[in-house]
Write a structure and sequence with these properties.
Blueprint (H helix, E strand, L loop, with lengths): L5 E4 L2 E4 H21 L8 H25 L10 H6 L3 H19 L10 H17 L17 E2 L5 E2 L2 H18 L9 H17 L14 H12 L1 H12 L1
Antiparallel strand pairs: 1-2, 3-4
Helix pairs in contact: 1-5, 2-4, 5-6, 6-7, 7-8
Length: 246
């Protein structure tokens, strides 16, 4: 197995990463519209579109900002091109969340809108991470050197944690979990909140298996993003745990 995975067309070399990244977006959108047809959406199509635009703009900004903060020592040396090329899913989720909340306030939508996106996001993440894995150490999703049985040579001759594969397994577990609670009566919006908390908990923990540059208090920008999410959904967490204790 040679990393990164690539193919040639007309004597030009292309990476599979781009194919899977595009496929992830396409499949996620198709699943979203498939699920949307099966429910009575309390949010109008026009407002849904506006909210999605807000999410995409927020994700575009957030993914770049958090990626920029992943390497604090390199901030002064960033160009517009490197700033645009570097991105992180965690930052995209954080920025997307802020973009949605801001646009909803602007258009006066007070109904939670995230539950419908959970399964499409899980599917898109799974497919997208195939692309990340295909890049080996050329994509910053590889882990530290390890003697654990899951260690793989990702292109530099060292046995490393295949972080992208770990996340793919986690996405499968999340899909099974949300399918199992599909029939449970939850408050509108709780499924998305639960997804965000679980995903960022995973990202917080798996970050310790990756080579990272601390941003503050020996934690990376992604870990601080995770802490922000935990604080943002603190009331939700208190309510869920209180419900379980009862």
């Amino acid at each position: 197995m040679t990393f990164p995975f690539q193919f040639e067309i007309f004597e030009k070399t292309f990476y599979w990463h781009f194919i899977f990244e595009t496929l992830a977006f396409f499949v996620g959108i198709r699943i979203y519209y498939f699920l949307k047809k099966r429910i009575q959406d309390p949010i109008s199509d026009t407002n849904r579109l506006i909210i999605m635009i807000g999410a995409m703009i927020g994700a575009l900004i957030g993914s770049r900002v958090i990626a920029l903060l992943e390497n604090p020592s390199q901030i002064a040396h960033q160009t517009f091109l490197t700033l645009y090329q570097n991105k992180t899913v965690a930052g995209g989720f954080l920025g997307g969340l802020m973009g949605v909340e801001l646009i909803k306030k602007c258009i006066g939508v007070k109904i939670a809108s995230g539950d419908l996106y959970v399964i499409p996001i899980i599917a898109a993440l799974f497919i997208g991470r195939i692309g990340c894995f295909s890049m080996g150490i050329a994509e910053p999703t590889y882990g530290n050197e390890t003697t654990f049985f899951t260690g793989m040579n990702l292109g530099d001759g060292l046995k490393r944690h295949p972080i992208a594969l770990y996340e793919m397994v986690f996405m499968v577990l999340l899909f099974i979990f949300f399918e199992k609670i599909k029939s449970k009566k939850l408050i509108n919006g709780d499924r998305f909140k639960l997804f965000m908390v679980l995903y960022f908990l995973f990202r917080f923990l798996v970050e310790f298996l990756k080579p990272y540059e601390p941003l503050f208090l020996n934690l990376s920008s992604i870990q601080w993003s995770s802490i922000f999410i935990f604080g943002y959904y603190w009331k939700f967490l208190c309510r869920i745990f209180a419900f379980k204790n009862n």
